[in-house]
Design a protein that fits this description.
The chain is built from ten helices and no strands. It is mostly helical. Keywords: Chaperone. It holds the Pfam family Nitrate_red_del.
């Protein structure tokens, strides 16, 4: 693996990790402060990710811990029934804790991964599957550069339902910061989809 390729893989892993963090919980003051120093240009000017990245940076700079908490609660923690269920089972089967979760757990077990008992969310939460992708790219103990393994997990557990999730968020009037997060997620998944498709050609 060349230095340039290694750098690109680290950048992919970091973006998966950032998106996983943003879907899991509202950003705290420390994370918001980091975005006030974040570069607004994509690594390649004019690239597909530049505009959604700029929008995300702008929304993170405009947010406060309180406004982020309020928006997160309005979208994902509604009294009774949340506005958006960020779980694969909901989008693939219509209900939470369904067969997609069981299939995911089987694949995670094959990878030697288990859910942290302290983690409240089930494994098919969007944050969890994005974090698994980060791990498969750059985690300790995994076969570095195993694109086939990354592709298989991505196609089975990320690609099939991310677009409907992001569209559900974007349709919510309360979504401002998470509209930008959703747009960035969708754009990144599109880039990853195209990249993995090239493996098969």
């Amino acid at each position: 693996m060349t230095t340039e390729t290694f750098s690109e893989e680290i950048a992919r892993a970091e973006l998966y990790g950032l998106l996983a963090r943003l879907w899991l919980a509202p950003p705290d003051a420390a994370l918001l402060a980091q975005f006030r120093l974040a570069v607004t240009e994509a690594p390649e000017p004019g690239s597909f990710l530049e505009a959604p990245w700029q929008s995300l940076v702008a929304q993170m700079r405009a947010a406060t811990p309180a406004s982020a908490q309020d928006e997160f609660a309005a979208l994902f923690q509604g009294v009774g029934k949340p506005e958006v269920f960020p779980y694969a089972s909901f989008f693939l089967a219509g209900f939470v804790n369904e067969k997609p979760l069981a299939r995911l757990r089987e694949d995670l077990a094959a990878l030697g991964l288990t859910r942290d008992a302290a983690q409240f969310e089930t494994e098919d939460h969007v944050s969890y599957v994005l974090e698994v992708m980060r791990y498969l790219i750059a985690g300790e103990g995994v076969a570095q550069g195993n694109l086939a393994q990354q592709r298989d997990f991505f196609r089975a557990h990320v690609q099939p339902w991310i677009a409907p999730l992001c569209e559900a968020v974007e349709a919510q009037p309360a979504a401002q910061l998470w509209r930008a997060i959703a747009a960035m997620t969708l754009a990144f998944v599109d880039v990853e989809t195209q990249a993995f498709d090239l493996i098969d050609t």
